[in-house]
Amino acid sequence: MLANQLELEKEDITKDELVYERNNEKYYANEAIVESIYDLGSFFRVAKLFNLLPSRFIYVLYKIFANNRYRFNQ
Prior knowledge:
mainly alpha
């Protein structure tokens, strides 16, 4: 389910990161992306392999992509 920003808690908004919620558990930033792709099922379950990489490295990639998302969308 997609949520409106108005439905988020104040702490989620102040983080200024992607938020994904499943079974009352929240995931942020790169973890939100991995978990949401994993939930697509079948082939997309390989997304969990990203958890094998150092979390700091993945977070830095996430921030680079997030800060430049408009450039990548052209």
